UniProtKB/TrEMBL annotation:
It comes from the Bacteria. InterPro entries: Restrct_endonuc-II-like, YaeQ, YaeQ_sf. This is YaeQ family protein. It comes from Methylophilus aquaticus. It holds the Pfam family YaeQ. SUPFAM superfamilies: Restriction endonuclease-like. PANTHER family: SUCROSE PHOSPHORYLASE. Transmembrane segments: none annotated.
């Protein structure tokens, strides 16, 4: 018998002063049985960093042909393809052919640094790719709850995260823009 996804109900308040985006989102996220709390919360942060009305969660781990998040235009063409984790470089090149812009969000500390060291030359050759590293996501992972109210304030590329358990900062590192 296959394991079912765990459903998370998350109320997200976004105040992104860098992009002038201020919005409240009531999200329902499905956590794949093989997914960690850390990856789920990094997916949420990837949503926050790219939030707009057209951005949607894809099937991600459940479907190799879909990203974790994507944004399509009214014709169905993929404008933005957003993936979380440390994929094979071929997967990113394939995504570049399908979408106008690809955003790769790395996490995992030293493992992400090693991935970048191995793949940076190939990534730098691709014109429509942004690579973001989130070096410290442990506190983000600890905030995970099946029912969560969380706020993200972004200013000068710094992210302040606030929830019932406290607040902390995340400093993303843009490796390629």
């Amino acid at each position: 018998m296959a394991l079912k996804s765990t459903i998370y109900k998350i109320d997200v308040n976004i105040a992104d002063m860098d992009r002038h985006y201020y919005q409240q989102h009531n999200l329902t996220l499905a956590k794949h049985p093989s997914e960690t709390d850390e990856r789920l919360m990094v997916r949420l942060l990837a949503f926050v960093l790219n939030a707009n009305e057209a951005l949607q969660f894809g099937n991600g781990l459940s479907d190799d042909d879909e990203p974790d998040l994507w944004q399509k235009d009214l014709t169905g063409a993929i404008e933005r393809w957003i993936c979380v984790g440390l994929p094979d470089e071929r997967e990113i090149r394939k995504a570049c052919g399908r979408a106008n812009h690809v955003v790769q969000v790395l996490y995992g500390g030293r493992t992400a640094d090693m991935w970048w060291a191995q793949n940076s030359k190939a990534m730098l050759k691709l014109n429509n790719v942004t690579v973001i590293n989130l070096p410290e996501t442990e506190q983000l992972s600890a905030a995970a709850a099946r029912s969560l109210s969380i706020s993200f304030t972004i200013q000068d590329a710094q992210i302040l995260v606030s929830h019932a358990g406290g607040s902390f900062e995340i400093s993303p590192v843009i490796l390629k823009e």
